[in-house]
Amino acid sequence: MSKAQENSFVPDYLITPGEVLEDYLDDMGMTQAELADRTGLSKKTINEIIKAKSPITTETALKLERTLGRPAHFWSNLERQYQEDRLRIAEQQRIKCDMEWLEKVPVAAMAKLGWIPKLKSPVEKLEAVLRFFGIASPAQWETVWREHQVAYRQTERFENCAESVSAWLRQGEIQAQQISCAPFDKKAFQHVLGEVRDLTREEAPDVFVPKLVELCASAGVAVVFVPELPKTGTYGATRWLGDRAVIQLSLRYKSNDHLWFTFFHEAGHILKHGRKDVFIEGKNGLDNEKEEEANVFARDKLIPPQEYRRFLTSWDGCSLAPVVAFAEEIQIAPGIVVGRLQHDGRLPIKIGNKLKVFYRWAASKGEK
After folding, report:
1. Where is the HTH cro/C1-type domain (predicted)?
2. In terms of DSSP bridges, do strands 221-225 and 244-249 run parallel, antiparallel, or are they unpaired?
3. What does the pLDDT look like over 23-62, one tens digit per residue?
4. Is the domain defined by 3-99 classed in CATH 1.10.260.40?
5. Rounded to an integer, what distance in angstroms lies between the CA atom of residue 315 and that of residue 220?
6. CA distance 237 to 224
7. Which of 28, 99, 176, 336 ranks highest by number of CB atoms within 10 Å?
8. Residue 220 in 3-state DSSP?
9. Other beta carbons less than 10 A from residue 278's beta carbon
10. Domain extents for the chain?
11. What backbone torsions phi and psi does residue 191 show, to the nearest 5 degrees?
12. Which residues contact 50 (CB under 8 A, 6 or more apart)?
């Protein structure tokens, strides 16, 4: 450390020019009214300078020099130093608040997934995160992500972290904007869902994902897959970006029955509910009626109710061969039938899972 650095003093408090001026008046036994008379300034101006409501201008500094005997640059320097210290302390406080916000953002996880660069400097990390969100400061994040929070289905097993959820949603928005998508067409989307249902029998994600994205995009729905972030507990989201709808999936439970049920659940929201609706699970203010409507839509779209009831009347309640045969008959993946039977309590949760297909994210790019 240099001698200059050792001898430098940067206060963390403010001394206003008005305080110094008031001390001079006390030492001289001069009132504010008398100073006003001697300088030609109004009593209000003198009082506002002392209370730091008005600055000492160059003209005022000259008048104080003639009246109080201290040079004009003394008063001008007091004002300049005060303004510098005020801005510096405000900037330090802003940076402190920004860093407190940054600590809540899952920066490491986002960098690992390639959403932002891997950086060491906290300031560089903050800049990268702000660019990712497309905002000027954390104050704008508060506006964008709390006041305009997107509808999402969320498990209650994990504590919700708004910063993590918003980052997950933002990545979905970024990916959705990269999809060439037609304007939303409700009838076209209803037709597309029939073709999408056929894709449930395809086990390879590198085969069914491109087809799913293409089919839905033709009807105005952008489908994106985004890995779940820590503390989010999110596995599906539905929202609108201009004239297109967005379905975002995280593969939280990694099995094909959960994947396809979540997709059709979100599709149900698109077809049955308004573009401005917000759907949040359970204690977070969930609209149970609309969530149940989406659940019923997904359930019945995957396995027609009449066919399901017919199967249950002839099934022995334990054999898996009839489950496979039934899935083939209604042209659906057997794992989806197993998941339905487990959900309804007709099959133990540990039985039949070998008929399901499980997925995992690639470690490098967050792709399946």
Report:
1. 21-75
2. parallel
3. 999 999 999 999 999 999 999 999 999 999 999 999 999 9
4. yes
5. 40
6. 10
7. 336
8. coil
9. 18
10. 3-99, 107-144, 151-303
11. -65, -45
12. 18, 19, 21, 22, 32
Three-state secondary structure call for residue 249:
strand
Around Cβ 198, how many Cβ atoms within 10 Å?
13
Cβ neighbours for 13, distance < 8 A, ≥ 6 positions apart: 89
Average pLDDT over residues 274-288: 53
Q: Which residues neighbour 350 within 8 Å (Cβ) at sequence distance 6 or greater? A: none
Task: List the beta bridge partners of residue 238.
Answer: 151, 247
Give dist(CA 317, CA 40) in Å, integer.
100
Return the sign of the alpha-carbon dihedral for residues 341, 342, 346, 349. Answer: positive
Q: List, in sequence order, every residue forming a beta bridge with 87; answer none if it has no partner.
A: none
User: What is the distance between the alpha carbons of residues 189 and 290, in angstroms, rounded to a whole number?
Assistant: 19
Q: Residue written as tokens 């297109």? A: 244
Q: What is the DSSP string of 14-62?
A: ---HHHHHHHHHHHHT--HHHHHHHH---HHHHHHHHTTSS---HHHHH
Query: Which neighbouring-strand residues pair with 152?
Result: 237, 280
| Structure tokens, 13 | 């408090």
Phi, psi at 207, each rounded to 5°: -100, -50
Does this model's pTM top 0.70? My answer is yes
In eight-state DSSP terms, residue 348 is -
User: Each residue of 114-147: pLDDT tens digit?
Assistant: 999 999 999 899 999 999 999 999 989 988 876 6
